[in-house]
Amino acid sequence: MKGFPLFSALCFSCCAFSGNAREPVVDIYKADVDQVSGKLVRYYQTFDSPCVNIQILKPGGQGIASDSMEFCDIEGKNFNNGFTDVSLDRATFSDTELQLTFKLMSLVGVNETTELCKFRVDGEHLAEPECTAQ
User: Fold this and answer.
1) What's the superkingdom here (predicted)?
2) By CB distance 3.0 to 4.6 Å, which of 44, 63, 86, 128 could disulfide with 79?
């Protein structure tokens, strides 16, 4: 029983809460959190989806989000069926934005492209992302 508190902390450290609900998200394999425009912003990906979830966390909300966005499209193509492969290559926080760099493999040919998407906080909400080819 001595190790139970440590075991419990490890089990729940890979979870996040989705949206305003208290339902935990499990199977997270990539995540980070930092300040953007004075708000605590978190992103995460799960094993079962190439989509990236971006959230503004409520202060003192124990992981509850005040605003959320599921990012699944670039240039009108969905991550689930518009590419043969989508990988989040890099994530960088700054004072004003979260930058996500994606490596995208086309459905036709063997062309890999790189897209940089910038996510800003507009008041209490996430602004629409701005993506550019690199």
Assistant:
1) Bacteria
2) 86
CB burial string 45-65: b at 16+ within 10 A, e below: bbeeebbbbbbbbbeeeebbb
Q: Please answer whether residues 71 and 54 qualify as being in contact, where contact means their C-beta atoms are separated by less than 8 angstroms.
A: yes
The range of the structural domain enclosing residue 31 comes to: 4-133
**Structure-token pair, residue 131:** 């993506």
Evaluate whether 56 touches 63 at the Cβ level (below 8 Å). Answer: no
Residue labelled with tokens 């508190």:
5
Query: How many domains in the chain?
Result: 1
Straight-line distance from the first to the last Cα atom of the chain, in angstroms, rounded to the nearest whole number: 52
Q: Supply the pLDDT for residue 63.
A: 86
Tokens of 45: 């990906």
Distance CA 99, CA 111 (A): 23
The DSSP H or E segment spanning 6 is helix 4-12
pLDDT one-digit tens code per residue, 19-47: 544 567 778 989 999 999 999 999 999 99
